[in-house]
Amino acid sequence: MVMMWDLQSSSQPRQKFSGHTMVVTGLTVSPDSSQLCTGSRDNTLLLWDVGTGQCAERASVSRNLVTHLCWVPGEPYILQTSEDKSIRLWDSRGLQVAHTFPTQQHIQTYCEVSEDGHKCVSCSSGFEGEGCEATLWDLRQTRSRICEYRGHFQTVASCIFLPRALASMPAIATSSHDCKVKIWNQDTGGVSSGLRMATLQDEPVAEIGVGAHGMECKADDPHSGHFVALKSI
């Protein structure tokens, strides 16, 4: 079940969305905030009306264990990564697959779309440098691979486009189970800088994001099983 909360009053959820039969592993909200799309290990995507909490569309693809979802800004399209090594672009108008990118060699763990909606980035599982890459894709007419970013030695857990306020050039940031965050030149694929999260005693970096004070990270805590929030970088 997915629950929506009012940040001003957390006593009761504002809306509940119940329909998946297994754990929900991805969700994304439409640009106008009227729709919610959720994905699960039950191989299913559900499209919800945020106002009513009702399921508007349902789509299922065999072996499509969803790992992440991201709505394309200003468009009716939803980007999705999967444990079946696929990256799919869904049309929310009927919830049909509009495009499937070339199947990768490893599980696709995460995806994000650029602010202008022209590009997307996905990342891969892996071990000892095999796999462990992030890939930049064109979301426009060609929908082809633009660049790959290689240098991690374990699964890449997340990937984001950095806003220009945080980088002097177009840049992508990745986090990995190898306990590193890397910042890449989006155009050349070169590493701009590398950060080793020594303050977390070499714990895998689960996720990165951009907050009010810069780039923020979360790391897996092997003792509690919870996320540990890091200060901004």
TrEMBL record:
Please provide the record's keywords in A-Z order: Repeat, WD repeat
Q: Tell me the leader sequence span.
A: none
Instruction: Fetch the InterPro entries from UniProt.
Output: WD40/YVTN_repeat-like_dom_sf (IPR015943), WD40_PAC1 (IPR020472), WD40_repeat_CS (IPR019775), WD40_repeat_dom_sf (IPR036322), WD40_rpt (IPR001680), WDR31 (IPR040066)
Report any Pfam family annotated for this entry.
WD40
- Alphabetized SUPFAM superfamilies for the sequence: WD40 repeat-like (SSF50978)
**WD repeat windows:** 17-58, 59-100
Which PROSITE patterns does the protein's record reference? WD_REPEATS_1, WD_REPEATS_2, WD_REPEATS_REGION
Give the protein name, as stated in the record. Answer: WD repeat domain 31
Its source organism is Capra hircus (Goat)
